[in-house]
């Protein structure tokens, strides 16, 4: 295993063992999107607060593998404070990453890049994209896309 693979594995496990933004917003504060992956049993409940075209808060609860829960932790960290357009662009870039496509180097993916190896395992791609699908659905529900 390369040192980069080892680093990525540690980043994923760190987000899995110490998830960022774990929790739930009150319904009065935002909206809640519940999704699951029936293939493997992963589930997520994403709480999203979108105000004036900006994702002001994002939290998640869920159960699943290290890939799905790490991805949710990374995603909530990455989109907080971003405009809806920026959050959707990040979701698009993540989708491309999961398809094994080259990503524009000018976009800093931060910890999210650690999930790039998932593209080599098609059965795990749905695990990694579950939270991102919830984000896209939540932005659509907010009516601020």
Task: Give a topology summary.
Blueprint: H1 3-17, E1 31-37, E2 42-51, E3 54-63, H2 66-79, H3 84-98, H4 122-142
Antiparallel strand pairs: 1-2, 2-3
Helix pairs in contact: 1-2, 2-4, 3-4
Strand content range: 15-25%
Give the CATH architecture.
Alpha-Beta Complex
Q: Averaged pLDDT, please? A: 91
> Within the largest sheet, what's the order of strands?
1-2-3
Pfam family, one: NifU_N
Protein name: Fe-S assembly protein NifU
Family: Belongs to the NifU family.
Domain NIF system FeS cluster assembly NifU N-terminal: 8-127
What would you say this structure looks like, in words?
With 145 residues, the chain is an alpha+beta fold. The chain has one domain: Sufe protein. Chain: A (Alpha-Beta Complex), CATH 3.90.1010. It is 45% helix and 19% strand. The chain has helices at residues 3-17, 66-79, 84-98, 122-142, and strands spanning 31-37, 42-51, 54-63. The chain has a 3-stranded antiparallel beta sheet with strand order 1-2-3, covered by helices on one side. Helix 1 (3-17) packs across helix 2 and helix 2 (66-79) packs parallel to helix 4.
């Amino acid at each position: 295993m390369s040192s980069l693979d080892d680093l990525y594995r540690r980043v994923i496990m760190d987000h899995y063992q110490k998830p960022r933004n774990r929790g739930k917003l009150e319904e009065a504060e935002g909206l809640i999107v519940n999704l699951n992956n029936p293939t493997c049993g992963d589930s997520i409940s994403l709480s999203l607060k979108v105000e004036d075209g900006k994702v002001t808060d994002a939290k998640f609860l869920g159960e699943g593998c290290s890939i799905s829960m790490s991805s949710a932790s990374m995603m909530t960290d990455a989109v907080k404070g971003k405009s809806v357009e920026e959050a959707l662009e990040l979701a698009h870039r993540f989708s491309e990453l999961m398809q094994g496509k080259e990503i524009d180097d000018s976009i800093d993916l931060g910890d999210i890049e650690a999930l790039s190896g998932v593209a080599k395992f098609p059965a795990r791609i749905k695990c990694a994209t579950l939270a991102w699908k919830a984000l896209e659905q939540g932005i659509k529900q907010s009516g601020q896309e």
